[in-house]
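To the team - cobalt (II) ion complex, inputs and output below.
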Amino acid sequence: MHTPTRQLSLVPESSPVLHHIALPVTLFDEQLHQTVDNMKDVMRKEGGIGLAAPQVGVPQRIIILLDLDTQQPQAWINPVIVQAQGWMWHDEGCLSLPGKRVRKMRSQWVKVSACDENGVRHEFERSNLEAACVQHEIDHLNGVLMTD
Ligand code: CO
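Output:
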């Protein structure tokens, strides 16, 4: 059965879902693939470099990251930071907090373990802006906004 998914969009800043801990994904099914495709569309439309599912009202541990080299969006499911090194100050914005900028202390390098859309687990490393972005999006999965 093919269940049509509504087009997702950013939820308002006041939405409770932005402050809740998102649930792990357990089914890597067509529904997940539709949510991922939908999230990539929202991120592209809004001009972001990262997006977390709670930002579009989906309380699941899904993030989209823009690969800055290829400019392609990548979906990561149930991501966990398994190693981090160094510190840096980073000026951040957030699609859920339009117009706001916050200077955050972030790890300069991270190793992340996460599943792809098919449930296969990968490890990957990110540094500088891309490292800050992963940390920002995983914060969203834990109900944490950059202003908290
Ligand atoms: Co954000």
